[in-house]
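Whether sequence alone determines local backbone shape is best considered at the level of individual chains. The sequence in question and its structure tokens are set out directly beneath this paragraph.

***
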Amino acid sequence: MTTPTAHPQNLAATLRRLLYFALAAVALVAVLASCDTPLTTFEPRSDAAQRVHTIYIFVIVAASIVGFLVLAAMAYILWKYRERPGHTAQQIHGNTTLEITWTVIPILILVAIAIPTIVWIAGTTAEPDEDALHIEAVGHQWWFEFRYPGLGPDGEDLVTANELRIPVGRQVAITLEAKDVIHSFWVPQLVGKTDMVPGRTNILEKFTATEVGTFYGQCAEFCGSAHALMRFRVHVDSHADFDRWVENMNADPVPPEEGSVEAAGARVFTNFCARCHTIYGVSTEEIGPNLTLFGDRATLGAGILDSTDENLKAWVSNIRDIKPVLETTNAMPTFYVGDPLVDQLTEAQVDQVVVYLKSLKLR
């Protein structure tokens, strides 16, 4: 009985199919790499993100070279030592030179990757610059609070929520805390992720934004049923625009004209919403997000909705239709669903609150 042997033409066809598959995979990777997403790590917009990106590219290139050489060597060996008529495969039980080579080369590659990685990790613990902007970020279920020590009214903290503002070209030093469960702070284009832990203050890597724009952040640690709906945005402003924002945050809002829809909305806000929300010069409670200059925010609901009149009305009317809420004594109530037994406000009053909140803008 003879053992069937692989025909050279069949083997060549198999190798061609493997080559086509490899080329298709490379093309697919190239197409996917060209796609843009708000949470991409491949478009750094700060010095910290650029350092991470540099290590990414170095590791990807090194891994690609290693992968190519391994696959090329495997293809060569499969072809050269294939079973064919008139050839008997040679049994090799050891090769000291080869074994030393494939041990030393990976060690050198790992050392080459480790050196810049260790240098980067060491740099994350450096003290902030003397003129760095200090910010405290606090994670709640499910929204982000941002506090600027000393920049608020009468030298107190300036507090905002879900939309962080920083100046371009100035180092930012952020400390991280959590009020309830573990959260995680992550803005891929600006800085890597770091956990926010209850009872502990973590220090985020210092970073300096290099470009004016708006960048997306996300809680990156599962924190409950609305984890995926816990987002925020970072607005990188020019120095002048950032100073103007701080000045307007500290200024008392202009009272609405008597008899206007804004004035009616302000009264409804004072009677109902001011129990939980701060607007500088109007209310001081800090149970829920600070709403000062709310009209200038691009989003609502911790970054999950565009701040349109329609979305804001739906949010104020019944938050539970949009996002899970912890049913505690401090939970935002349902204000209007068209049921007299449930409603705390009329539809007209909800509309008035929407107009009032949208009027709170930069001067």
User: Anything to note?
Assistant: The radius of gyration is 29 Å. Residues 38 and 271 are 39 Å apart (CA to CA). The helical segments are 8-34, 47-80, 96-123, 239-250, 261-271, 309-317, 347-358.
